[in-house]
Amino acid sequence: MTAGGALIISPDALLIKLIALPDAQILLWRGLLTALGFVIIVALRNGRNFLSAYQRCGWTGIGVAVLFSFSTFGFVLGNQYTKGGNVLMILAGAPLIAALLSRVFLRERQPLRTWIAIGLCMLGTSLIVVDDAGTGSWLGNGFALLAALALAANFTLCRTRLGIDMSPMLTLSGVLVASMAALVGGATHGLAWPPVESAVLLVLLCLCLLPLGFTLIQRGPLYLPAADVGLLMLMEVVVGTLWVWWILGERPAPIAMFGGALVLGTLFAKGLIERRRERRLRLEDAGGRLS
């Protein structure tokens, strides 16, 4: 689910470039449309138990929504005040932050293979965006760090309520993002309906792709440690680069191609190792029951 969600949201950066609207306006429509999209998904999944899906999340769900909102703002504003490569390199540290937070607050120990995978994926992501990185600004880098911290804290917080799906609370996150964008950019200017082409792309991205993709990603901590969810989200960086290459003709440098292969190869290898380990444990458990 997590990998599928990352693939679904991978055109995010490309579509934002094509929409070409002011940041406040994008954030406002992004918040409103994603909130509507999340409501539709929750209604389709739960039917008559629509409201109970929100009630089950409790105060933890509100915390998840707030953290998700901070990660959205940090990502968008980080790209405004510093180089995009800096933002992606800092965001690549989210799995490391999640692993540390899980160790401190949840007492979850990560196996050596996870730490190795985190290191390799951080290296691969750095190679992908090395051409678009630079000194940037402390403010922009700070916003990017806020996004990485909020993302990692979000996944870690979800792990405190195992068995409870927190994805419905992303509806509240959309409302918070829209409200803050309206305050920052002005509600009248933000609600001005964009040109037809931009409007179509906004609906595709914010009403369809982002709600579906992030619903899947937000369910990831139900089954995976927070660090593994963060690792799988790095697929968005790799596939998003390929989208830009295909649609806009911005061919990645050879070192970026190597970095993407390193990230995907690491995730694939880790997946195989985890799968084999799971099968071995199942066989051992079955053998123990028979004996």
Automatic annotation (TrEMBL):
InterPro entries on file: EamA_dom (IPR000620), EmrE-like (IPR037185)
Keywords recorded for this protein, A-Z: Membrane, Transmembrane, Transmembrane helix
Name assigned to this protein: EamA domain-containing protein
Domain EamA: 20-129, 139-267
TM annotation in the entry: 27-45, 57-78, 84-105, 112-130, 136-157, 169-193, 199-217, 229-248, 254-273
A Pfam family: EamA
Keyword Chaperone: no
